Amino acid sequence: MNGGVNGAERRASSAPPFPVLPEVLTSPALKLAVVVVLIGAALLLVKGSVAMGQTTLNGLVSAGYYALGAVGLTLIFGVLRLVNFAHGDMLTFGAYATVGAMATGLPFFAAAILAISASAAVAVAIDTLVWQPLRRRRTSTLQLFLVAIGIALILRYSVQFFGGGQIRSIGLDTLSSIAIGPWRLGTLQLIVLAVGLIVIALVGLALRFTRIGKHLRAMADNMSLAEVSVIDTVKSIRLTWAVAGALAGLAGILYAAAIGSINPNFGITILLSLFASAVLGGIGNAYGALAGGIVIGLSQEWSTLFFNPRWKPAVGFVILILTLLLMPRGIFGRRRTRL
Predict the structure, then answer these.
(1) Which of 13, 168, 173, 190 has the smallest CB count inside 10 Å?
(2) Four-point Cα dihedral 99, 100, 104, 110, nearest 10
(3) Which helix (H) or strand (E) holds 209?
(4) How far apart are CA 12 and CA 221, in angstroms?
């Protein structure tokens, strides 16, 4: 059995869903970087440095919570091959849980920690009550997708029932800003960007260097082999849901902090951008979710130089379609290998 686990862990070192960082520097990634730089240079010439620089900063802030949400989405798909349509509403839950905790008198950071923990607990509870029994019955992909939609609706209307349907303020100072040359960036937006990038980096390092990270990569590469080895797949799956739920809650909180207000439907609105980020990077690829989030964030904000901001979600949808047509496996996606 030891040989099985060692073999699974050795196999995990090259598992496609969560590659090591140097593998991110592949030819498609470099091509993508060149395309983004060229588009940015063209916009700089056409729209000027002030407008271009400001939208770029805004895009990087959006990339923080897009990528963070996409990492949680791609973790679930990487390990369980489940398209979790309820993931966007987990972001909503995290944001509203924070507002609710603040209403009791807790400061923002304490309320955020409580909300992130609650999001992780809800994700694990849903897995225990719904997904685990369905896995045992080997439910079809279509049925799982329909169940995910049902869970999303339950979460959304539960939030609306307890939190109300009106737009709510997060209750933070969204007016203070920092001058960066001719551009300005909100203090909260800067925190959102920093926290998003730091957390994603920590998740990537944990997947690469920790034992549980190796277990998750082994399960993502070949679940059957992981199950016959001494890897505790049940515990690892629960941990995956807990991490994905916590990341979703944090992404929702960062979104609320950056925007300043929330409503019960923002999760389903942002879900398209999360899927676009995950698919663009190569769904099931944690590092790809970061790259995809940056591209989607920049693309949507750059589009406001030409179109009304309300069309930003449509930009993500167009990128999603083009990615599926031209690169179905995404920038960093590869064929899944079997042992």
Answers:
(1) 173
(2) -60
(3) helix 187-209
(4) 7
In the chain, where the domains are located: 2-326
The CA dihedral of 127, 132, 137, 140, to the nearest 10 degrees, is 40
Q: What is the pLDDT along the chain (339 residues), one digit of tens a residue?
A: 444 445 555 544 444 444 444 444 455 667 777 788 888 888 889 888 888 888 998 888 888 888 888 988 888 988 888 889 999 999 999 999 999 999 898 998 999 999 999 999 999 999 999 999 998 888 888 899 899 999 999 999 999 998 888 888 887 776 777 877 788 887 888 888 888 888 888 887 888 888 888 888 878 777 777 777 777 888 889 999 999 999 999 999 998 888 888 889 888 888 888 988 888 887 767 777 888 888 899 999 999 988 888 888 888 888 888 878 877 777 776 554 333
Q: Is 227 in contact with 339 (CB distance < 8 Å)?
A: no
Total residues found in the chain within this entry:
339
* Whole-number Cα distances in Å, 82 to 28, 85, 254, 307, 316: 26, 9, 25, 35, 21
Residues 37, 45: Cα–Cα separation, whole Å: 12
Enclosing H/E stretch for 158: helix 141-163
Global pTM reads 0.84
Evaluated on CA atoms 135, 250, 21, 39, the torsion sign reads: positive
- 276, 323 Cβ separation under 8 angstroms: yes
Contacts of 263 (CB under 8 A, 6+ apart): 165, 166, 167, 168
What is the CB neighbour count within 10 angstroms for residue 337?
Answer: 11
